[in-house]
Amino acid sequence: MNIFDAHDANDAQATLLGAGVTKRATRLADGRELLYFDDPNTRLEAARSIDTRQLDPRPDTAQMRYDVLTGDWISVATNRQNRAFLPPANLDPLSPQSPTNPSEVPSMYDVAVFENKSPSFGPTLPKPDAAALRTPLGVPLAATDEPPVDPTTGISHPSFGRCEVICFSPEHEGSFASLTPTRARTVIEALADRVAALSALPGIEQVFPFENRGREIGVTLPHPHGQIYGYPVVTPRTRALLRSIDEHGSDLFARILAAERASDRIIFAGEHWTAFVPFAARWPLEIHLMPNRHVADLAETTAAERDELAPLYLRLLRAVDTIYDTPTPYIAAWHQAPVHIGRDSVRMRLELTSPRRAADKLKFLAGSEAAMGAWIGDVAPEAAAATIRAAFDRTPTPEDPR
């Protein structure tokens, strides 16, 4: 018996969330948090198995190094070199445990969330009473010690934070697009719950849920899953956005949405959400999905917004997969407002991007994009929107199997 046996879900308090989803909390053998999110119509028993593996201690928290030339923080997480790479189904670390597969999840599940075994940030968090510090260029960083006055001498800090894995299904292969509408709704409820929980942790400045899909993106596990990062800093992309809002006004997102809804780049305009290809799209396939009212993050969405999002998001992903004969690789990135700043002006949106520019061609980030950050589009956004819109129109609204 290990010291975490007492955290068996039989003893844990079950919490009823929105849409009839039930959350059950327990812990893995090395102390990492594990959460089960049960579908409203689940066939699972309330009792869950205990993780009885003998695990090594958790890795030390990685180190963040400050790049004085850009103001960015680089997390050096060497423990990630040893993570699983395209394992066979019988050794899938995200499948439920079996006698031959000592995976990360001890019980059968609908949706499961657990702390990453090889995190880029964490597992250490700063002391709750530690004030958020700022580097010489004003980047917030939760830490306990003041950085050196001269940034050229090299500033480093522990990579405080939290990295979680969210398993969409117990199946070995798939993606968000392969879920039923009910399961997609459970995943959305789980994401909203985790965004709220991570935002409340000490030292967390921004929370980022995302899904990578396809080997072309660099996916190392075919299991349908996403990740949730709790950063100790506001990310570079969001810092640039905050500067743009300062320049153009706090109603920037409202004006962008109005312009896009009136454009020929619109994909879908619903009661609560709008999907469009942005005017200055960087990627051959790029879709933004934005709430029609101002919402800072997923935790702030209403039940009605989540109800519309589940089938709409599924339909959008499935439509993208019909453009070519094989599934399309993508990154689905939920851009959210920082935890402590910009919440009245930064509107949450999903950015779905793919490097696929033809059936057998990918866009690679080479000289101009990779070295200088100067993007060159291969496909006109209006042409891309027409292709995606046609695919969306011929894709039926997903329904649960009878």
From TrEMBL:
The keyword Transmembrane belongs to this UniProt entry's keyword annotation: no
Record-linked NCBIfam families: galT_1
Residue intervals of the Galactose-1-phosphate uridyl transferase C-terminal domain: 247-346
Catalytic reactions on record: alpha-D-galactose 1-phosphate + UDP-alpha-D-glucose = alpha-D-glucose 1-phosphate + UDP-alpha-D-galactose
Biological process, per Gene Ontology: galactose catabolic process via UDP-galactose, Leloir pathway
Gene Ontology MF: a single term: zinc ion binding
UniProt keywords, alphabetically: Carbohydrate metabolism, Galactose metabolism, Metal-binding, Nucleotidyltransferase, Transferase, Zinc
EC number: 2.7.7.12
Enzyme class of the recorded protein, top EC level: transferase
Keyword Zinc: yes
Biochemical pathway: Carbohydrate metabolism; galactose metabolism
Domain Galactose-1-phosphate uridyl transferase N-terminal, chain residue ranges per copy: 101-234
InterPro entries: GalP_UDPtransf1, GalP_UDPtransf1_His-AS, GalP_Utransf_C, GalP_Utransf_N, HIT-like_sf
One GO term describing the cellular component: cytoplasm
Name assigned to this protein: Galactose-1-phosphate uridylyltransferase
